Amino acid sequence: MSAVSLLGEITEVGRDGRRGGYSRHVFDRAEGELRTWFAEQARRRGLDVETDRNGNMWAWWGTPDAGAVVTGSHLDSVPGGGAFDGPLGVVSALDAVDSLRTQGFQPRRPIAVVVFAEEEGGRFGVPCLGSRLLTGQLDADKARALRDPDGVTFAEAAARAGIDHERFGRDDESLSRIGTFVELHVEQGQGMFALDAPVAVGSTVLAHGRWRFTFTGQGNHAGTTLMADRRDPMLPAASLVTAARRIGSKIEGARATVGRLVPRPGGTNVIPTAVDVWLDARVGSNECLLPMVGEIAGIAEAAAAREGCAVRIAKESYGGEVSFDGSLREELVSLLGGVPVLPTGAGHDAAILSTHVPAAMLYVRNPTGVSHSPEEFAEDDDVLRGAEALARVLEHLST
Ligand code: HGY
Ligand code: MN
Ligand code: MN
What we know:
about 400 residues, alpha/beta, Aminopeptidase, Alpha-Beta Plaits, nine-stranded mixed beta sheet, four-stranded antiparallel beta sheet, 15 strands, binds (2S)-amino(hydroxy)ethanoic acid, binds manganese (II) ion
């Protein structure tokens, strides 16, 4: 079944009528539907499906063993996300298995298609949660205690999905099986459009992290509180937003974003008691990231002091810059006939795994260049070219 048809099968799952696009978050109803769909697709192909201790799903062609060629991506989305970010890597992997099977190919190494849990961090706030737990890059107790906006912990959500959260943590057995990991992903930018290339190979991923700022002031009535008598946490929150843009724009290649700001209690005629603001900050090197965040935080802290507000800053996630395995990258470039090599500002499970196993990424052209939004797009022809390229990569690596 082609990757285009497989995408068509899930096109209605998790549509978000309020935001547009899709909202599919780990262990919620929509993502649960996608897990069931994936398990069924795997079973139809005679792949053995298992869910590991951290909620990642693995579909095996051949007996799970060391040296496996692993591919896949994620099925969860950002709130109001596009149709391709994540699912494209999963459906392309299933398509690639189908076409290799049709050719009568017999892999000399096991091949696995993996679906990582909570890559976007859209529910519990930590991106690549499943692959970070798998590799031990996230403490299991910290993961268990993560809470979603409704206060549900990751442990509770996992238990409701039938996963024993007591077993969260580094999974050496699963890790030891991975010989090579290759993730196919829709491009999140317009580099390939400019190069007129349908498929590319990944080179680097920016260093990036997420910080939560909690500004606390004095909640009060919007109509009876004189302006001079206020301690309004929205003011330092606003300074954080503008500082992110100003400081991020100063540094070559940096990105600094506030996409989520939550006042409490959140009434139109209420001066907030507190405001939570999340900063997503990224830059080409570790050396630049922390100083950039420090400068932004300094501006926000000074604004809080001027307004008589307190501020608490918590680092919620952090990942250094990643360069994918050079020899594997060059091997794939030549295998695919000299396709371009592209850096990305987006984080991926492949980047998390790259510190443990040889990892690579394939990108498929996105003519809009837009991602984390319903305008994210890939032409059917490019989707099919991506799946063909992945099939050749899997054949090459498992021979
Ligand atoms: O945020 C990212 O870069 C990725 O989409 N999780
Ligand atoms: Mn994403
Ligand atoms: Mn993604």
